[in-house]
Design a protein that fits this description.
With 463 residues, the protein is of the alpha/beta class. The protein is 35% helix and 21% strand. The chain binds S-adenosyl-L-homocysteine.
């Protein structure tokens, strides 16, 4: 099974995007076989990378209990030769960083749409090549599918479900990879062994920015989740229309950088101080920290018994792991442990687990969301989660010239999509307050400059 990705960029650049050196042959052991990455074309103008997947059908069966399905079929089947969910798993393991949109050396290139040409040999399209078009074309792809007879000598046997598929689009690499990650198993529509609860999370994560608005989203969700009624209902129920684009937000390193710019002001301490005093004055007993990061606020809240239920949510596993260590979750006495919970989730999707709280905190998160995602976030928080109080903090852009180490015109953090002036933030906040039935007031965080204002601004929304 072979997937190639070609583009009009030098091989060195494609290598930086994929995090795989074009001069080498790379091999990876996977639980179901091996994956190899190499570059059939290493040009200074055009280059091509290949992912070769070598599924081991015997290895797959070994160690599994024998079920009613056992028999020759489990050894002799199409899995080793075709693009299936195994290819998706391999892509996420071998090209995981590229798929999340990060590139240490070439972030700008990673953020930029490029004309890609992908070739998938032996892609099963159950539902015909028409379905291929219905899935890829709404995302801007041109597609070509070459079909085959089951046997050229016996045309009466009909055609095979396998196609050689070429996909072309002007997209970011992460988009190309996540589209294929989701849509290849959808086209295959065969049983894959990994569908479970966390598959809904994976689908929603990989579908971020495009699945909600896809005209075939019902088919995609149904087939991806193998028509599991409970799972598909959960996934479809959480898709909010109108959201858009973006990468995984695993940006801990950037958060460190932001801290070092803001460190001399001890801004995070001041933020936590302002947040906790607003929560106390509202007498909030249940609090959800949306985009909790490494859990600094959570650990302060945990020390105050007036907060009876504390939940931290973040899209980044890594951040949650750090938070869990910081909070010593595995060592807390039961009474303490029952007050706090960490949830893996995205603010782009409706999530019942975060509704019904007295207060929600969204500290230094909105500036990480680009415009269309911000719109989804607004509905998720104010319309669906709908806490009594929402505290939103965000940098005040007017203060930036006063940071000695921040070059002019730069944001405090590489991943920031915007940094707002006070009037921009207030306009956004008032529009949303009005739209969702909240009242909003504004508090400064940190020592205010007479002209530039405070380094951080907070909107206090109350119902
Ligand atoms: N609230 C923390 C962390 C701010 S950094 C603090 O004040 O220190 C921004 C955090 O938002 C990161 O941990 C990032 O993983 C998280 N984040 C970004 N996009 C998100 C999304 N769509 N859903 C949930 N969390 C998200």
């Amino acid at each position: 099974m072979l997937l190639t990705i070609a583009a009009d960029i030098p091989a060195s650049e494609l290598g930086y995007l994929l995090h795989k050196n074009p001069a080498r042959f790379h091999s990876f052991d996977l639980s179901f076989g091996k994956a190899h990455v190499f570059y059939p074309k290493v040009g200074s103008i055009r280059s091509e990378a290949a992912l070769l997947l070598d599924v081991d059908p015997v290895g797959l069966v070994r160690g599994r209990s024998h079920t009613a399905e056992a028999g020759l079929h489990q050894y002799v089947n199409d899995r080793p030769y075709i693009a299936s969910s195994f290819l998706s798993v391999a892509m996420s393991q071998v090209f995981g960083t590229a798929m999340s949109g990060r590139s240490k050396e070439r972030q700008e290139l990673a953020d930029q749409p490029i004309q890609f040409d992908a070739l998938i040999t032996a892609l099963p399209c159950r539902g015909g090549s028409e379905l291929l078009k219905r899935l890829f074309e709404p995302l801007g792809y041109e597609s070509e599918a070459k079909g085959y007879h089951l046997d050229e000598h016996f045309p009466e046997w009909g055609t095979s479900p396998y196609y050689t598929v070429r996909l072309r689009n002007h997209v970011r690499l992460r988009d190309l990879l996540t589209h294929m990650y989701v849509l290849i198993p959808v086209l295959d529509a065969e049983k894959h062994y990994w569908v479970g609860e966390d598959e809904v999370e994976k689908l929603l994560r990989k579908g971020e920015g495009w699945l909600a608005d896809h005209p075939e989203r019902q088919t995609i969700v149904n087939r991806y989740l193998r028509y599991d009624r409970k799972l598909t209902r959960s996934a479809l129920g959480r898709l909010v229309e109108g959201e858009s684009n973006d990468p995984e937000a695993e940006d801990i390193d950037h958060t460190q950088e932001e801290r070092s710019i803001e460190a001399p002001l001890k801004l995070w301490e001041q933020r936590i101080g302002s947040i906790t005093s607003a929560l106390r004055s509202r007498e909030a007993q249940t609090v959800v920290d949306l985009g909790c990061g490494e859990g600094k606020l959570l650990s302060v809240l945990l020390h105050d018994r007036s907060f009876e239920r504390i939940v931290g949510v973040d899209v980044s596993w890594r951040a949650l792991e750090i938070a869990s260590k910081r909070l010593h979750l595995d060592q807390l006495p039961i009474a303490q442990r029952s007050r706090i919970e960490l949830l893996h989730g995205s603010l782009m999707y409706k999530d019942k687990r975060v509704s019904g709280f007295d207060a929600a905190v969204v500290a230094e998160v909105i500036e990480h969301l680009d415009r269309p995602r911000l719109a989804a976030f607004e509905r998720v928080v104010f319309e669906h989660a709908r806490p009594g109080m929402v505290l939103v903090t965000t940098p005040n852009a007017e203060y930036n010239p006063l940071f000695p180490f921040l070059p002019s015109g730069r944001f405090r953090h590489k991943d920031h999509r915007f940094e707002w002036t006070r009037s921009e933030f207030q306009r956004w906040a008032m529009e949303n307050a009005e739209r969702f039935g909240y009242k909003v007031r504004f508090l400064p965080i940190g020592t205010s400059d007479p002209i530039a204002g405070p380094p951080t601004q907070m909107g206090v929304f109350e119902r």
